[in-house]
Q: What sequence folds into this?
């Protein structure tokens, strides 16, 4: 009941502010129009060359306190009009309007800093949860290092921060519970292009459940958004069967694998770092097979043809299962080709190399 009353009071205050702005603009308009007409009708008698546009110019420079002095009223009627419409009514109203505009700008900036504003972005990346400053900074940098996302706008959502601890161009903040639909609406999820949901804590076994719930909410709000989630435990994979647009990364498992692999085969981590980073030339990329050639093509032949063009086919994902052994496997529509190349290629480009 208290929350409802508070919300109602806030709505009423907003309506009053909107009405106040409308009244101020109306009074300013009346002041300018009134002074323009009195100046034109009275002063034109003595100076026939005066036009209505001269009156408008005189009114604007007077009410804004600029006062160039190039035009002024010389008649009694014109001066009375200026004293009333500009001095008594216009100046007070105009300065009040300027003060409200300054307050509005300051309020908007404060809301943006504290995550209480709204996002008007389109095609932006949403990063959900804030497990740490260095981690989030790293994700943003890696994402923007890709040639296709160099100028990408980013919206961070978290209920654990009062404001962002850093200031990065193109990165904004929405403060609130990621399970609350209203907060996603403020982040303009309907226009977002991609989302990355980070685990809030690697120590909490319930993190996967929270991340899965957030993915479910986001997918319902925008079924077209591509969501990448951080999953800590392989046993929780079933939680993320929300949509084909939701993909998982097992960060802890990958880290453990790399530690063991590097211990057994030194040098593996260096190559892995190179092919998984946008900061280094020669990065892992993917392309989906959109059509199957008339004649069946084996992946062994495909791998050879691509390698001749400087593209190293690493594996194929089919029905969410990875294939790295290409013996007996043929190119099929819907397959996702994973390869190392200097740039991400469209299916038409790749198909041209296979002809």
A:
């Amino acid at each position: 009941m208290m929350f409802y009353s508070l919300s109602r009071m806030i709505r009423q205050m907003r309506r009053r502010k909107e009405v106040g702005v409308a009244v101020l603009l109306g009074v300013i308009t009346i002041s300018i129009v009134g002074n323009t007409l009195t100046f034109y009708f009275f002063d034109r008698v003595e100076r026939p060359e005066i036009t209505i546009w001269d009156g408008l110019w005189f009114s604007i420079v007077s009410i804004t306190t600029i006062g160039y002095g190039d035009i002024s009223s010389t008649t009694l009627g014109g001066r009375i009009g200026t004293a009333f419409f500009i001095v008594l009514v216009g100046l007070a109203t105009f300065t009040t309007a300027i003060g409200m505009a300054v307050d509005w700008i300051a309020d908007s900036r404060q809301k943006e800093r504290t995550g209480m504003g709204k996002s008007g972005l389109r095609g932006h990346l949403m990063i959900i949860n804030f497990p740490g400053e260095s981690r989030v900074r790293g994700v943003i940098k890696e994402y923007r290092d890709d040639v296709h996302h160099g100028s990408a706008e980013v919206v961070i959502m978290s209920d654990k921060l009062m404001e962002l601890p850093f200031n990065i161009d193109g990165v904004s903040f929405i403060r609130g519970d990621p399970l609350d639909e209203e907060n996603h609406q403020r982040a303009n999820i309907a226009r977002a292009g991609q989302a990355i949901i980070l685990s809030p804590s690697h120590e909490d076994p319930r993190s996967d459940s929270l991340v899965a719930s957030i993915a479910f909410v986001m997918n319902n709000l925008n079924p077209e958004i591509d969501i990448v989630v951080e999953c800590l435990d392989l046993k929780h994979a079933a939680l993320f069967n929300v949509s084909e647009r939701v993909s998982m990364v097992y960060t802890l498992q990958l880290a453990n694998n790399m530690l063991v692999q590097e211990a057994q085969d030194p040098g593996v981590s260096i190559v892995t770092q190179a092919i998984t980073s946008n900061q280094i030339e020669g990065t892992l990329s993917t392309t989906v097979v959109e059509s199957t050639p008339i004649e069946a093509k084996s992946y062994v032949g495909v791998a050879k043809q691509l390698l001749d063009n400087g593209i190293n086919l690493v594996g194929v994902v089919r029905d969410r299962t990875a294939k790295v052994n290409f013996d007996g496997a043929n190119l099929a529509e819907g397959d996702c080709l994973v390869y190392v190349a200097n740039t991400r290629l469209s299916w038409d480009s790749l198909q041209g190399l296979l002809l």
User: Anything to note?
Assistant: The chain has a mean pLDDT of 85.
